[in-house]
Amino acid sequence: MIDFEAIILHWGPQAVATLTSPDWGYPDREAIEAVRTPTDPIRIAVMRDWLQRYRVFLGIEGRKRTNIAAAVLQWADSPNRPTCLSTADAICAQHESLREACIAAYGKERNFTSLASKALWLRYPEDVPLFDSYVKRTLWVLSKLESGIVSPDNGASEYQRFVTVWKAFYDRYKTAWGKIEMKGYKYPVRAFDVMLWMIGSPGYS
């Protein structure tokens, strides 16, 4: 067993400090605002630049990048989107819908799991984690040490397993996370996400 609350109290403030730094904070705020403002004339460029910043366009040429960014915004603008995603199943359903929109914009099958998860966070910044190899690495280890955290069976997608375990940890330790001073940062889910990212990043310190 591990003392995950102690981990939160140690790493949580570092995650918040990272997110409130200019290098991280401003681009995220700008992209979230672009998603929320359909009248913004440069919102496609803002979305494209934000996705490029998160390195999810590798191997995709410029015009296709613009098409995908536009498709993400068109998807986000749909009045049929739920107002929040309170369960792992709800997150996965919207992720799959957005992933399919990205494939259609690209014009052929491609693994858009990571891209769609990051774009989905912009639409639901209070609910959605970012699918990331470092975070996944952390969850692999923690789920083996924490009792009662169960991944779906082998029939589930990689993203479904990731979200289910991530949300199980977040929901279980939401009270402990509430002890972290957010310093004006609005999205506890993202700070929790960055904490897991920092723990799983390469290195021994």
Q: Outline, from the CA principal axes?
A: globular
Ends apart, CA distance between termini: 21 Å
Tally of helical segments: 10
The quaternary state of the protein chains shown equals single chain
Task: Compute the number of structural domains.
Answer: 1
What's the helix-strand series? HHHHHHHHHH
Biggest β-sheet: count, sense, barrel? none
As residue ranges, the low-confidence spans are: none
Helicity, in percent?
A: 55-70%
Task: Provide a compact summary of the structure.
The protein is an all-alpha fold. The chain is 65% helix and 0% strand.
SSE arrangement:
Layout: H1 4-19, H2 22-36, H3 43-53, H4 62-77, H5 88-106, H6 113-123, H7 133-145, H8 158-172, H9 174-177, H10 188-200
Helix pairs in contact: 1-10, 2-3, 3-4, 4-5, 5-6, 5-8, 7-10
Highlighted features:
single chain; mainly alpha; about 200 residues
Describe this structure in words.
The protein has 205 residues and is mostly helical. It has one domain. Helices cover 65% and strands 0% of the residues. It is built from 10 helices and no strands. Helix 7 crosses helix 10 (188-200). The longest helix has 19 residues, at 88-106. It is globular, with a radius of gyration of 17 Å. It starts with a helix and ends in a 5-residue tail after the last helix. The mean pLDDT is 95.
